[in-house]
Amino acid sequence: MSDDDDRRKRIKTEEDNKVKGTLVLTNNHSFLTTIDELLGRKLVSLQLISAESTAAKGFRGKLGKETPLTKGDSTFELEFDWDDEDGVPGAFLIINRHRKEFYLKTLTLTHVPNVGRLHFVCNSWIYNEEHYTKGYRVFFSNQTYLPGKTPKGICYYREEELVELRGDGTGKREEWDRVYDYDVYNDLSQPDKGSELVRPILGGSTDRPYPRRCRTGRSVITDSNMESRIGILQSLQIYVPRDERFSDLKMQDVYAYGLKLVSQGLLPGFESVLDKISDEIVGAIENAVHHKFKSVSSNKFNEFSSFDDVLNLYHGGLEVPKFNFLESVKEKMPEFFRELFRSDGEHLAKFPVPQVIKVDRSAWRTDEEFGRELLAGICPVVIRRLQEFPPTSELDPTEFGNQNSTITEDHIKDQMDGLSVWEAMRSNRLFILDHHDPLMPYLRGINETPTKTYATRTILFLYKNGTLKPIAIELSLPHPDGDEAGAISTVHTPASDGIEGTIWLLLAKAYANVNDSGYHQLVCHWLHTHATIEPFIIATHRQLSVLHPIHKLLHPHFRDTMNINALSRQTLISAGGLLEKTVFPDKYSLPMSCNMYKKWDFTKQALPADLIDRGMAVPDSTLPHGVRLIIEDYPFAVDGLEIWSAIKSWVHEYVCIYYKTNEDIQNDTELKNWWHEVRTKGHGDLQNKSWWPKMWTRDELIQSCTIIIWVASALHAAVNFGQYPYGGYLPNRPAMSRRLLPEPGTTEYDELETDQEKAFLKTVTPQLQSILGISLIEVLSRHSKDELYLGERDTPEWTADKDALEAFERFGANLRRIERKIDEMNRDERLINRTGPAQMPYTLLYPSSEVGLTGRGIPNSVSI
Predict the structure, then answer these.
(1) pLDDT by residue (tens digit) across 20-66?
(2) Domain covering 363-514+733-765 in this structure, CATH number
(3) Nearest-CA neighbor of 814 among 647, 654, 652?
(4) At 182, phi and psi to the nearest 5?
(5) Which CATH number is 12-166 given?
(6) Residue 255: how many CB atoms within 10 A of its CB?
(7) Catalytic residues
(8) Are the CB atoms for 25 and 74 separated by under 8 Å?
């Protein structure tokens, strides 16, 4: 053989031992030539890991040679030395010796011997090696393995990665940390600022049970059990594992929406928000805000004088100032304020018109619209079928006395199409919105604050045309002789004229709405979606490897949730936070939510189980969804059951790909550890409840995963993204009340007859807090530019399993079919409750959406 032939053969052999790959970063992180590179130092390098084990390493596969990352922009072409005998790479290590972190998106190996193409989904921030225990990060290919079927070469790294994510439960968490750990809600108080800002710790006790939140490890102050807080301008840096933070695109939206909130509602009322900004900036902003809002009315944010005054919020009543003053002070402002406070006032537009008044400005006042919104509004998950009359209380009579309802048949007999109460109940025509028991234990304290309200029970009747109308509203107060003396109550029934007409048409329904608004925000929204999902997120990262099929199934439904919850603890649900300022219970907000957690039942978060529990459906195995609705035209339930069944069908197909028998479930150690930790740590205060699934069968796993996905996606969408479309118009859904019904013989009582609008507006949320509340729910009701909706993934190569990808395609097709069906139902004039008097189609469970304030769309996760 000639020398040339030998050289060509050697070159060919070397080429055969090369594995080519493409590494993708985002945000155009460039690695420029530095002294280190000139000296030959490898600032960023990768090593492939064989999926096959070697005798020398036990359960660790062979490591390939270090392959450096040379200078580039965001895409890097690599060549790895890799012999055929090394087998198939199952993972790779990456080491960052660079001073700057970067975001690693994917690695794709294009020519792997005997395999061809191999893809690694990374989507993670990589910090300098000094921030990692081992000095490196490990990423696995998009293959899926149950623990017992993991290739031996990557078993060690699979377990090592989980150990890293669990941490050791000590120390303050830093920006670069990836540790998922649990803690109680002990970071809501500011005891160093006075006793009025002290709140009880939630979680860790039988009196105040609560789901766990992500541990940050900050130091304690004043009380050894209270965690210190960070400044308001540091809120966006509150700790969550780095990869749980918002994307740059979403962060831009957060800044923009945050500015809108600050400019329209926050700055006028919350001096504490400005305590980190210089006096010069504070003064300038306050002057601008005063100018901005002076056109709303001349009474310094005290009262709206009429409904037209409220409508001015949406039709040009808020003059948008030109913030020219910022040119002289913007350099002293935090960076994100400098970017967003623009002199042209671009971000400071007036409020958009809420959908509930777009077609008809007065339809919200009707009894029909009040009833419809309990079936197709922002909180359609509380109404129940009335199954006993009069309604009774579950409050302990030794502590609270007689709290049973005082509503009698005489109150409602003329409103039930000639039926008796017994006949109406037997024919499933009576329903109740009951906020009495949740509120009454706190009502005496609440009414010692500026808030003044009642505990309400609302009885509704289902008419033959399918509409649901209130026929009696009971307003109850604690007895002046003490809690044990029971309640004092008044019952109000439909009227259209005089003082009784004002009380019924506006005030009685307003008190019921105030109750419903507070319960919705604190229980149905915050507790039942945001708070209860977080423990599942923590446990999943701690106990289920990214290689695990259930991790891959659930991961999209956890996106951004920990970040939004952390921000909520900092600015919304904390002592003196926005929720306490805009929702009726004030400092009693979270304790009431805590009390409702005692009744939380994971299995009843399944939509069919929830509907049956509320008496809104009965089991019927002959129907597609296994239940028959008591009210056929119940838009939330109708659309929800379609979405629920689509999710369950997808989960069933997916789970059965990996678990062929129940024994496969029982032999899965990671799954066993995951469920044990969910129950004993994440929801540890309720760990002894008998309703917890055992997680021994495929059916239990399918049902549990379906519940998690339903709660994180569809249920949250149903109770979140309608906040502005329904509640952005204050009179339709007031969040607080400031006075009780006026006493006969007073000027205020006479005003009930002479000026209905003024009497109503004097009772509900005042102007400043209305602006703040509307600003807040406008932010919360928007979809960001980077949103991912149900049936979507951030990468088409999230798994290498063809069967799973095909099942996911069927899921997406099913959702598109549901969208078409919703469109058809919304055009069906026979389905009165889908649009109602307000002519507002029900679209909250329509799967897809555009960016912005759309009143539709089901994001994958609790993301805002």
Answers:
(1) 999 999 854 555 445 455 444 678 999 999 998 765 555 688 898 89
(2) 3.10.450.60
(3) 647
(4) -105, 155
(5) 2.60.60.20
(6) 17
(7) 525, 530, 716, 720, 864
(8) yes
